[in-house]
Please model this.
Amino acid sequence: MQNALKENILTIDNSSLVDKVETQLVDLLKQQKLKVGDAIPKEVDLATSLGVSRTVVREALTRLKMMGLIESKKKKGSVITSPDIFGNLRKSFNPHILDEETLKEMFEIRLVLEVGMADLLYHRITPENIIELKNIVASEPPITQYHLFNIDHEIAFHGKLYEITGNNTMKKFQKMLLPVFDYVHQSGLLKMQPLLRAFVSHKELVDILENGTPEKFRNGMRQHLENHYARIFE
Model:
């Protein structure tokens, strides 16, 4: 009897009116296919259309402004804007406040991104980029079997690779990922660092970029990161 009663009870919608209006506004902007720079309806018109007070609409619009979806313009009112997709995300991307599963998944995302960037690199790299990469690796200390990761060297070399791709969004994401990567590496969340296996160094990766192919670079980067993958799968 009790089980049957539970099955017939509808889930209570405990979201606030402002939450609902915020969702409706986002849906409305999508339906009207508004683009960056387009003005959205006035506050009073939105309140009338949605059947709520202007106070509720105003608070929902404030949330959209905080998310970077709209902004106020003189003589135009509120307009659609291109949000900084990493702005709010960056504030919560502190490895000390992320749970262990999320941290491990961030570790994995960085590995996947760098193996997959080969074609972008080969399409956009210049002879000047090769010289810059050679200068970066020339200042690196030798890799030993007990040490495969140094945050400063990773930022310098891999950061340059992201820059060469010409993908600014991916570059911003990389800047957030590397501190997480370093934290996971040092924290003990993964298995202990193994002795180095077949390892492709930064210098060898530069050689592949200069003389090889995207496929060879993918394989080289995969081997470069092999010892990190080993900590996930073994």
